[in-house]
Amino acid sequence: MHRCLLLDEILEVIFDFVFNSIKVVDLRSASDCHQIPYILPSCYHHDRRSVFCLALTCHAFRDIAFGLLYSHLCSIRPLIKSLPHSELVFSGTASLALTSEQFNSSIPYAARVKFLFMQYDYHGTVYATLLASAPKDTLIFPNLRSLTWYDGRITSIPVLRLFLPTLETLSIDITETSFRQAIIPDLHITAPHLKALELMGNYVATQSEIELLLLTYPEGLTKFSFQCCTISSGLLDVIATWPRLRWLTLQLGPESIPSVPLHAPQMFQALTHLNISCNNFGIFTSFLRAFRMLRMDSDTYSLECPNLKIIHINAKECNTSSTWSELLSSLTCTKLEHLIIEELCDWFSCTLAVFDFHPLLAHPIALAELKTLVLIPNGYTSTITLTDTDIITLARTCPYLTVLDLGVRNTPISLYALNFLVRRCRELRRASVCVNAELDALGRTLPKNDVDNDQGGLQSNTQLFQLHVGGKSPIACVGPLRPSTAPDLMMSIPRFLHAMAPRLESIMKILPEGKYGQRWEMVSDALSVMVEEAKESRDDGMIP
């Protein structure tokens, strides 16, 4: 073994990379929603199996690997399992009462736990064991920093209080009234180091108790999430001037908009992440104006949050064409890195909406750092008017784009425009757009009056692994699918796509939906064969 692998610092970096190497591959269809993110990510998005294998590889790896595994726990079970007679605890037969010495020696990795996810202890024996055996003069988890807590029973509170003293981030379900009334009033005392708070569940009571809690943090929090119900304008007024607030997740409604102008000097100045769930985009723009986050000067919009990098909006209702256009126009001067806008309305109550994509590109320099662009209107009655020129402008404007998801709701673009986008944006990993691969579109080329459109100088994209065109994207086919009249034409499209993105193994798996679904499945199958053949050639040394 190389001597550098004997250094703990190097092993920690390597193992941490492996632990977080799982990419949460989004295999959703274009109709599925982009969920508002939680402050605390899921504890299941880690490659625990690989780190466990590293722990078993040699003695030098063992301690660091197990320490990493115990740093993020999806339950208390791994720790209780190390206790003698733990099967009695899990079966609900009995709880255990150990001395402090027995408890500490039986749970050697408790001090390494940094993230803990707790749901229900149905039998109560796990809670009873913790309460009976926990040392009185020290903490069970002295380095615990983040906790997700879903058990809203009043009987769980004594155990919850064992975890609060060292917490910096707390995600907690406050649906149950008695539980909420017991925890919320003194949370600033029981969790004195709290910096981030996420309140979950269904909450319909007055928000005064939440407001009183937030007022106990004179410097505010760095992250706050409140999706239990529509937030009131009074509660918003409390958090608007927090000087360190970087992450804000809210459910907005008419009652969120103050009836009189606010006079606070500067609001949401440190904000970097803004996640909003609302009925319609009009409420969102009203929120921006009411809290002076949006300014309009001589027909030009600008956001007054200088550090804002992420905007994520989910609308529950359908929006008109003008509402979409106004929203896109208001975001043209933002220096965002991630922009996600989606309608989640029921198709039974849909409104016809057709809006242009190009208003978003009115000030292209402002979007130079954009990495994620998701615009998904309702798929039954709404359409994004998108042209090849728009795609060319987008590719030039946003060279760092990694995700482009229009939910295949756009008017079809040519394969040549897609090719320019994919090759120009070398980091693009996922694309969901409607394309036109009919005969007349296959013969189309990009304008020749701009030397920047010379695609011969653009290299293939080796990052793209997911392309979704839907089953309604037009694709050429002469005669029946399989006879000699079709193969050359059908194979030319996979060859074109393979040259564009050599690691693209298939068009995103779709049912043979729409008029052209079966034809795109043939293209997808051909791509899979090409990628496999390329891998075999590389393995044989024929391709570098």
Average pLDDT, all residues: 82
**Most strands sheet:** 14 strands, parallel
Percent in helix: 25-40%
Write down how many β-strands occur, each being a DSSP E stretch of 2 or more residues.
20
Q: Structural class given helices, strands, pairing?
A: alpha/beta
- Total of helices: 19
Terminal Cα span? 29 Å
Using the alpha-carbon principal axes, give the shape.
globular
What is the topology, as strand order, of the major beta sheet?
1-2-3-4-5-6-7-8-11-12-14-16-18-20
Share in β-strands: 5-15%
Low-confidence segments, given as residue ranges, are 24-32, 478-487
- What is the radius of gyration computed over CA atoms, rounded to a whole number of angstroms? 27 Å
Write structural notes for this entry:
With 544 residues, this protein is of the alpha/beta class. It is built from 19 helices and 20 strands. The chain has helices at residues 8-19, 48-55, 59-71, 77-80, 86-91, 100-106, 125-133, 157-163, 177-183, 187-190, 208-215, 233-239, 281-290, 321-330, 388-397, 415-424, 439-442, 487-500, 517-539; strands at residues 72-73, 115-118, 146-149, 169-173, 196-200, 223-226, 247-251, 273-278, 294-297, 300-303, 310-315, 338-343, 353-356, 372-376, 382-385, 403-405, 413-414, 430-432, 435-436, 466-468. α8 (157-163) links the parallel β3 (146-149) and β4.
